[in-house]
Design a protein that fits this description.
The protein has about 300 residues and is of the alpha+beta class. It contains eleven helices and ten strands. Strands 1, 2, 6, 7, 8, 9 and 10 form a seven-stranded antiparallel beta sheet that branches. The protein is globular and about 55 Å long. It starts with a helix and ends with a helix.
């Protein structure tokens, strides 16, 4: 009986300390439904809008796994900086050896010329620079932007091992699924996926400035990489999206906004399957416009 009372007390205390759901504009649901209808049949959507660590003020299919494209790299960044918190300005051990081995699964699926370009750009770079390259693509081409993420995956032992690390970071991250290296076939071992709730958990913890088992300096460094300017009201924006024009065509816009009234976390995940290959680029552009518009509408609905 005493143990039960203690458990109930802890649950009650946790419920009292949890932030309340974010109040949102009542017109949001109708606006989002209209935007999705305009995309036509065959488009799947997963959405999330909340305060960090709170239940969503608005969500659509929050526990449905969706393809992530590069948006999952936000979680990779956290894991990378957490592991190397005291050595962000030193090279990542083992990364150069991966780059030098043209048979390593991190780069073996790429043409030789693209491997050489990635080697020239990434050999010997610091952990901080590697994180910047894989998140923003600053100063590198698209292939190297993805090879940077593959070096992170490889140095943690491969997709399965990195997924295990992410799942161990926090229960709310167990909806993150790492099944392949970037730019590898999306069907051989399965695609990289996330539920909107799990991707929101990553950004929510970054917005809160604290993650379990991660040094505050590493959290600050990750936030700096994800920084994406400010909105018209001067509130800071942090973002990591993703896009793929292979099957299924995928667009993701996710991150958080932070200002004097606190932070708001948002996730927009769209995927369209069955698009004939010649039409995928146009379909991707359409999904991209919709993802940006829905993300803006979500943020506009939050106080």
């Amino acid at each position: 009986m005493r143990r039960l009372a203690t458990v109930l007390l802890l649950l009650f205390a946790g419920a009292c300390s949890a932030p309340p759901p974010l109040p949102v504009d009542p017109a949001l649901t109708g606006d989002v439904e209209e935007a999705l209808r305009e995309l036509g049949p065959g488009v799947r959507a997963g959405l999330w809008l909340s305060r960090p660590g709170a239940a969503p003020g608005y969500a659509l299919a929050p526990e449905a796994p969706m393809p992530t494209a590069s948006s999952i790299k936000a979680a990779f960044l956290v894991e990378l900086f957490a592991a190397r918190a005291g050595a962000l300005d030193a090279p990542l051990p083992g990364a150069d050896a991966v780059l030098a081995d043209d048979r390593h699964p991190a780069i073996a699926h790429l043409p030789a010329a693209q491997q050489e370009t990635a080697r020239a750009a990434l050999t010997g770079v610091t952990v901080r620079r590697l994180g910047e390259a894989m998140i923003t693509g600053k100063g590198v081409d698209n292939v190297t932007y993805n090879v940077a993420a593959n070096l992170v995956i490889a140095c943690f032992g491969g997709p399965r091992t990195l997924q295990e690390r992410l799942h161990a970071r926090d229960p709310s991250w167990r909806g993150l699924f790492v099944r392949r290296y970037m730019l590898a076939d999306r069907t051989v071992h399965g695609d990289n996926e996330a539920t909107p709730a799990s991707l929101a958990a990553v950004h929510g913890m970054l917005a809160g400035g604290a993650l379990p088992g991660v040094e505050p300096s590493a959290v600050a460094a990750a936030r700096a990489v994800l920084a994406a300017g400010a909105d018209p009201a001067g509130r800071a924006l942090f973002q990591k999206g993703g896009d793929l024009d292979s099957e299924p065509v995928t667009r993701v816009d996710a991150g958080f906004r932070q200002g004097p009234d606190g932070a708001v976390v948002y996730v927009v995940m769209l995927a369209q399957g069955g698009v004939p290959e010649p039409q995928r680029r146009v379909a991707g552009q359409q999904l991209g416009r919709a993802a940006r518009a829905i993300a803006q509408r979500l943020l506009a609905a939050a106080p």
